[in-house]
């Protein structure tokens, strides 16, 4: 079945450590996105990529980094520079400029100890 | 900043009743979408309405869009306990898929 796989589902990090969240899709979608969701709130865009080897900052990119070396993969690194990283992270993909619909993974919950 | 603002923030109804959620936004859009999120899960796309459409139906869902008032509503008819979830509106200014999400409405449907 086609879809988006995020891992790990739960992750704990000590302050000062970098962590990488994985996002893989087998939908053959061109565009991929990372969103952050804080408790009881909506989603805020961190980074997005519309094509391999290219990505752009979203609204809250500070303290995060991404790469897009393969069409299927869009990992997100939460660096030690991110002041408040505890949140729920959602990866999504879409057919670029087509239906407008985003397909989401099941999310990764990061907790800083 | 968030483009959409949902109202109410939380809604509790009995099974069989209708649930109405509203979304207001600030800038012009090309389309508006509604998504559903079960607790601790990813979002699922429900319906998309284009800026030149006023109403759209999908099963028990009815979405309206008033671009003059910059507002949309989502109606779920004959609600079920399984409809319990958070519902988010998202706006797209230019068919770029660069969606801006509102804060969501938490719906609880009591059996």
Please report the distance between the alpha carbons of the first and last residues of chain B.
36 Å
Share of helix of chain A, binned: under 10%
Radius of gyration of chain B: 13 Å
- The end-to-end span of chain A amounts to 36 Å
Mean pLDDT of chain A, rounded to whole units?
A: 93
Low-pLDDT sequence parts of chain A: none
The helix-and-strand class of chain B reads mainly beta
- Using a beta-carbon cutoff below 8 angstroms, give the protein chain pair with the largest interface and the number of residues from each chain: A-B, 29 and 27 residues
**Global outline of chain B:** globular
| Main sheet characteristics of chain B | 6 strands, mixed
Report the portion of residues of chain B in β strands.
Answer: over 45%
Runs of chain B in which pLDDT lies below 50 for 5 or more consecutive residues are none
Provide a brief overview of the structure.
The complex is a heterodimer of chains A (113) and B (111). Chain A has 113 residues and is mainly beta. Chain A is 0% helix and 50% strand.
Topology:
The complex is a heterodimer of chains A (113) and B (111).
Chain A: E1 4-7, E2 10-13, E3 19-25, E4 31-37, E5 43-51, E6 54-57, E7 64-66, E8 76-78, E9 87-94, E10 103-104, E11 108-112
Chain B: E1 5-7, E2 10-14, E3 19-24, E4 31-37, E5 43-50, E6 55-58, E7 61-66, E8 71-76, E9 85-92, E10 100-101, E11 105-110
Parallel strand pairs in B: 2-11
Antiparallel strand pairs in B: 1-3, 3-8, 4-5, 4-9, 6-7, 7-8, 9-10, 9-11
């Amino acid at each position: 079945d086609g879809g988006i796989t995020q891992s790990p589902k739960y992750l704990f990090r000590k302050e000062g450590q970098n962590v990488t969240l994985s996002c893989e899709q087998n939908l053959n979608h061109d565009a991929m996105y990372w969103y952050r969701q804080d408790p009881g709130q909506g989603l805020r865009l961190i980074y997005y990529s519309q094509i391999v080897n290219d990505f752009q900052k979203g609204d809250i990119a500070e303290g995060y980094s991404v790469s897009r070396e393969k069409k299927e993969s869009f990992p997100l690194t939460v660096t030690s520079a991110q002041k408040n990283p505890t949140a729920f992270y959602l990866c999504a993909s879409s057919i670029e400029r087509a239906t407008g619909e985003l397909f989401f993974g099941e999310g990764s919950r990061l907790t800083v100890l | 900043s968030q483009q959409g603002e949902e109202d109410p923030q939380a809604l509790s109804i009995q099974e069989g009743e209708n649930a109405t959620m509203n979304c207001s936004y600030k800038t012009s859009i090309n389309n508006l979408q509604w998504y559903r999120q079960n607790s601790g899960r990813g979002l699922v796309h429900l319906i998309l309405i284009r800026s030149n459409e006023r109403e759209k139906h999908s099963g028990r869902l009815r979405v309206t869009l008033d671009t003059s008032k910059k507002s949309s509503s989502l109606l779920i008819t004959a609600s079920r306990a399984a409809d319990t979830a958070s519902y988010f509106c998202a706006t797209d200014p230019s068919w770029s898929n660069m969606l801006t999400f509102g804060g969501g409405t938490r719906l609880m449907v009591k059996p």
